[in-house]
Amino acid sequence: MNAEIIAIGSELLTSSRVDTNSLWLTGQLNALGVEVTQKAIVGDDRERLAASIRAALGRAPILILTGGLGPTEDDVTRDAVAQALSRDLIYSEEIQHWIEARFARFGRPMAEINKRQAFLVAGAEKLENPNGTAPGQWVDLPPAMLIMLPGPPHEMKPMFEDRCLGRLRERLPTRFIRTRFFRVAGMGESDLDQLIAPIYTPYSNPVTTILAAAGDIQIHLRAQADSLAAAERLAQELGEKIEAALGERIYSRDGAPLEKVVGTCLTQRGETLAVAESCTAGLLGGRITEVAGSSAWFLGGLLVYQTDMKLRLLGLDPALVAKHGVVSEEVAMAMAGAVRERTGSTWALAVTGEAGPDPSPGGPPPGTIWIGLAGPAGTGARLFRFPGDRIRIRAFAVQSSLNLLRLKLASIL
Amino acid sequence: MNAEIIAIGSELLTSSRVDTNSLWLTGQLNALGVEVTQKAIVGDDRERLAASIRAALGRAPILILTGGLGPTEDDVTRDAVAQALSRDLIYSEEIQHWIEARFARFGRPMAEINKRQAFLVAGAEKLENPNGTAPGQWVDLPPAMLIMLPGPPHEMKPMFEDRCLGRLRERLPTRFIRTRFFRVAGMGESDLDQLIAPIYTPYSNPVTTILAAAGDIQIHLRAQADSLAAAERLAQELGEKIEAALGERIYSRDGAPLEKVVGTCLTQRGETLAVAESCTAGLLGGRITEVAGSSAWFLGGLLVYQTDMKLRLLGLDPALVAKHGVVSEEVAMAMAGAVRERTGSTWALAVTGEAGPDPSPGGPPPGTIWIGLAGPAGTGARLFRFPGDRIRIRAFAVQSSLNLLRLKLASIL
After folding, report:
1. What is the CATH number of the domain that holds A157?
2. What's the whole-model pTM score?
3. What are the tens digits of pLDDT across the range B137-149?
């Protein structure tokens, strides 16, 4: 079963307003086994909105409208629905009395303008609104349903939960949903897709969605069936194939970000981490400490942004730096070793590289990053070449540092 | 002139993903005097998307599509546009060579799958993509224009700015727009609005837009008129009133972020900065070094996340820490003084506080942050109490640290 959502309001067409209602409604609908197949945002324009409503009803059996039910001239949802369905608007004394009673509770008479809110689309049923003056409306158009909800989230959400959810559930075929979720590090999006597209493409159920950020890819599988066991079987079958293809590149199956996965592992082992950051200059430490409670395993570290700080704060040998350059295997290893010694940590990560946009005189091209890792059994370093601008290169460097440690802790490296 | 935007991608129809591209594009279009009259989000479904494209072109002379230009099977934008316009897709050897060259730069052969990205809609012009493999496309359909942009923001934004803005400007009727832009630190959004709403509310032109992030507020004024002088007069009149009300809380009039304002000031003075971070654990250093070239004035610093690191790396007196607690004026000042000494910087910022979500045993409530500042004339510290969750508290702490230094450098503090 599919649904569409139309959010109504010219303010939602500005550069600063996000339609959060549709996100919440999508979550609610998905939990019922309903897919949202299209969304639209339409301004306070009756003709436009009526056309959008007609088009949406031609595509999806469930249409939810939010917004435009207020008392002012630019609240056009009632009129647009009546126009789209070629139905009349009918004045409801019952709704008027209800709005009057609400005003009375706040010791005020009902404003004349609020009478606009007492019009129902012919054949519609009103949906009570305990949190505002705008009643919602439910129009049955068998086999379709059109639901009109107010725009303010604190009115829309309880109205949907209390007045719509049960009714929707009754009319929907019983569907069960099982999901799989993988987060992957250490490969690019196109490499990943080349590897797993042949696996997931033959399946239309589960639906596979891939989201990519710098060095971090999320794979969602969502299986639907008419029994829980069948949905689980579908999710498991495709999930296992993808797991087999990706192996250790999967770092999380429960949504936990990489810094949390690494932290959980260190906590279990009773070990600690410190960092020495040059081109990332704190982003790695900042990322690690997004995890509340990370002080159990993260000690701190050194920001050695200027070359001189690598000597002064970390005590690196000036001859070593002069010989190999700051962006080098030797310096990455020396940084990791020195910060491990200075902090007394079990593990230490070091990042040195060129984040751009321009290369330093005599330095390597932007995107060249050496990551050093020091631990109980010794020190090593890896070279990476990341694409993109300064922001992406630094994000890749942070992600790849954490992934290097993850692989080391899992004895894969 | 009106525009519509269609964001493409099934992941944008989940309950967790916001279409931020259309917000950014709306801001860009508004600045050209173009209103966005409708937006849609369509999944990776060619038929649906083709129908949406046809409908939108029937309503608005400018249609911008974002997303669906990747190399995989579920990237259907090229095909859907061809279908909607009843045009062929034509293979471009030129684009293929360009994609191959991009892969070669990273030392890899082009994946076969990327050939899909070399197809142009007949009559379309390609839009170069320096940040990814997906070229954009521009289709002239006089008097309409259809623009296809990639979905990842770091690819979409530069492509729009570099390849589309100038071309759009040429084709739009001449409206003169003058803007004023202020960035404000050191006050909350509701305090700010209480102060300036009485000033800007009487004006419908300029349009005033306020965007608030943690500790950082942006105020945009946008005046439109049919002559440059008239637009400038409108912008100047309201702009001056707002400047008078906000005074030194305005830190930028050209959009420069706070770290850049501070950096420019330090560069002019030939001075340097170092940091000692506890609860922010690198976020301040990471933020400072978002500015390319910041190594001219930012030296580095120390991440002293665990208490023991404050003694071990910074050499703080254990008795001082034990007496006052790590979140204290004394420790903030000692941290700033110590990192200034160890790095030899002109200025040093230190952050120590409780970011939450839970208070430490015996510690202050989450949101309590001491910021220390050491400079040539001595050391001081300020107490802040920030609202919100861990992420917001840490963002407030970073912003407030930089603002403290800005005010000090301007001799206001």
Report:
1. 3.40.980.10
2. 0.79
3. 999 999 999 999 9
